[in-house]
Amino acid sequence: MLLSAVTALGVFNTVLLTTRERRRDLGMLKSIGMTPRQVVVMTVTSVAGIGLVGGLLGIPLGILAHRTVLDHVSVIAFPASMRDVWHAPQLAGLALAGVVIAALGALVPARQAARLTISQVLHSE
Predict the structure, then answer these.
(1) What is the pLDDT of residues 10-37, one digit of tens each?
(2) I need a labelling partner for 35 at 20 to 30 A (CA). Which of 24, 41, 60, 99 fits?
(3) 82-111 burial, b if ≥16 CB within 10 A, otherwise e?
(4) What CA–CA distance (Å, rounded) separates 101 from 14?
């Protein structure tokens, strides 16, 4: 849970900075008719996609790192029950957790960006 909270805060920070950098683009999109709901969906979807890719890349790399560490620790002989700890439902849950954490971390900055008026965005430029 602690790792998930830290990850969500990291995503929150990254998305907050990204939406602040893209204020002008969002203002232009809103000026041609994009609704606040569409701004939120666009931002959360883009971050959730990155979370999915991160989960799909991170899971095999984590399994590889686990195997590498266990194979190269020669002081302790690990039994098979400690080596085979990964199961398909857990891996699917981890991939889904990457998407959920990314979407939850992006929700607040996306809503803040959606609340800005066109004049506020262009005035800050």
Answers:
(1) 888 888 888 888 878 888 888 888 898 9
(2) 99
(3) eeeeeeeeeeeeebeebbbbbbbbbbebbe
(4) 13
